[in-house]
Design goal:
Layout: H1 9-27, H2 32-52, E1 55-58, E2 61-63, H3 66-77, H4 79-96, H5 101-121, H6 130-140, H7 152-199, H8 209-222, E3 229-236, H9 239-246, H10 248-265, E4 271-276, E5 279-284, H11 289-305, E6 307-310, E7 313-316, E8 319-326, H12 332-348, E9 354-356
Parallel strand pairs: 8-9
Antiparallel strand pairs: 1-2, 3-5, 3-8, 4-5, 6-7
C-alpha cells in the first residue's frame, strides 16, 4: 500500500483540536460527571469525523483514527464516556454501511475496552509518560483482531494492507494525541489548584472569605429553596486566652479540629468557610428554621465535646453561634450583619450557646 502523509493531515489536525477541546472541558465549572459526558461526546464526534474521509485499502475496509478517539475516551474519561463515544462511532459506522460494518464496530469496542483498562491501570499515576502512551497504543491494536470477522477473500488483504498502517496510526497517534492531552490536563489541573489555593484557607482546608462569597453567589443562583435558608456565624469562646495559655501551635490544632467538626455536622450541600481568626461561617441552603437550629446546635455540641491533646492533657474549646434565617432569597451582607447581632447576644448571654434572629420575610 502506498502511503501519502498528506492524506492523514486532517486526522492529525483533528487530534490537536480534540486535545484543545478536552482541555476546555476540563476547565468548565461543571460537576465531574457532566465533564466526562461532554468529553465522551467530543471524542465520539472526533471518531465520527475521522470516518468521513477514510483511507479505503480494500473493499469494505476503512482505515482511520476512530478507534484511537474511542480508546482515549475510555483511557482519560472512564467507561461511561467510552460508551458514549462508542455509541456515536458505532452509529456513524452503521450509516456508512458496507461489509465491514460489524468488524468495524467490534474493532471500536475492543479499542474502547482496551483504553478503559489502560485508564484503570493508570489510576494511581499523576501523569502518563511516553512509555505509558506507547503501551496505550499497543493495547489499542487489539482492535485489529476484528479483521478476522471479514470475509476470507478480504481478510488477507486487510491484514496485509490495512493492519500495518492501523497499528502504526494507533501507536503514533497515542503518542501524539496523548502528549497533547497530557499537556492540557496538566495546565487544567494547575489552574484548578491555583484557584483552590486562592479560595481556600490553608490551615483548615475550608473556604476562605473570598471562596465563601463566590460559593454563596453560585448557590443563590442554582438552589431553589422551598424551606428557606440560614447563615450561621461560629466564633470560638476565649480563643485569645487559649492561644496565650497553650501557644499558637495548640491554637492552630484547635482550629483544625473545629474545621473537622464543622464538616461532620453539616450536610453535603452546605457551605463552610473560615472568615479569619477564630470565626467561621456556615450557609445552609434549603433549610427550615428547625433544620438550621438543629445543625447549629450539632455544631456547638460537637465543638464542646471534641478536644486536642497537649502534653498529656486535653484542651477543650466552646463556641457561640449566631444565626440568621430567611424564608426568601438572602442577601449575604444583610445575613451576616443579622447573624453577627445574634452572635453578640450569645456572647453576652454567657457563651457556648446558639441564638437566632427572628424570621426574615424578605431579605433580598
Amino acid at each position: 500500500m502506498k502511503l501519502n502523509a498528506f492524506e492523514f493531515l486532517d486526522n492529525f489536525a483533528l487530534m490537536a483540536l480534540a486535545a484543545v477541546l478536552y482541555g476546555i472541558i476540563l476547565r468548565l465549572d461543571y460537576p465531574r460527571d457532566v465533564r466526562r459526558i461532554l468529553g465522551g461526546i467530543m471524542f465520539g464526534v472526533g471518531a465520527a469525523v475521522s470516518m468521513m474521509d477514510p483511507l479505503r485499502v480494500a473493499p469494505g475496509v476503512i482505515v482511520d483514527l476512530r478507534s484511537l478517539f474511542i480508546g482515549f475516551s475510555g483511557a482519560f474519561l472512564g467507561p461511561v464516556a467510552m460508551v458514549i463515544s462508542l455509541t456515536i462511532g458505532a452509529v456513524t459506522r452503521y450509516q456508512i454501511g458496507g461489509i465491514g460494518v460489524v468488524p468495524g464496530i467490534v474493532a471500536m469496542t475492543l479499542a474502547g475496552c482496551s483504553g478503559t483498562l489502560w485508564g484503570y491501570l493508570m489510576r494511581n499515576r499523576s501523569r502518563a509518560r511516553v512509555r505509558h502512551l506507547l503501551l496505550l497504543g499497543l493495547m489499542l491494536c487489539v482492535g485489529l483482531l476484528a479483521f478476522l470477522l471479514l470475509p476470507p477473500e478480504i481478510r488477507i488483504k486487510a491484514f496485509k494492507n490495512a493492519a500495518p498502517y492501523a497499528a502504526a496510526s494507533y501507536i503514533l497517534g497515542a503518542l501524539l494525541l496523548g502528549t497533547f492531552v497530557e499537556r492540557e490536563r496538566f495546565y487544567a489541573m494547575r489552574e484548578r489548584r491555583l484557584t483552590n489555593e486562592v479560595n481556600t484557607d490553608p490551615l483548615t482546608g475550608l473556604l476562605n472569605r473570598r471562596g465563601f462569597q463566590s460559593g454563596f453567589e453560585a448557590a443563590q443562583e442554582e438552589t431553589v429553596s422551598e424551606n428557606g435558608a440560614a447563615i450561621l456565624l461560629v466564633d470560638l469562646d476565649h480563643f485569645k486566652k487559649l492561644n496565650d495559655t497553650y501557644g499558637h501551635d495548640i491554637g492552630d490544632l484547635v482550629l483544625q479540629s473545629v474545621g473537622a467538626t464543622l464538616r461532620k455536622a453539616v450536610r453535603q450541600s452546605d457551605l463552610l468557610a473560615r472568615l479569619g481568626g477564630e470565626e467561621f461561617v456556615v450557609y445552609l441552603p434549603n433549610a427550615s428554621m428547625a433544620d438550621a437550629r438543629n445543625i447549629a446546635e450539632r455544631i456547638r455540641a460537637g465543638i464542646e465535646t471534641s478536644s486536642v491533646a497537649s502534653n498529656g492533657s486535653s484542651i477543650k474549646a466552646s463556641t457561640s453561634i449566631g444565626g440568621c434565617w430567611s424564608l426568601n432569597a438572602m442577601d449575604l451582607t444583610t445575613g451576616l450583619k443579622r447573624a453577627d447581632v445574634e452572635l453578640y447576644k450569645a456572647k453576652q448571654g454567657g457563651r457556648n450557646q446558639v441564638r437566632f434572629t427572628p424570621t426574615i420575610k424578605s431579605a433580598a
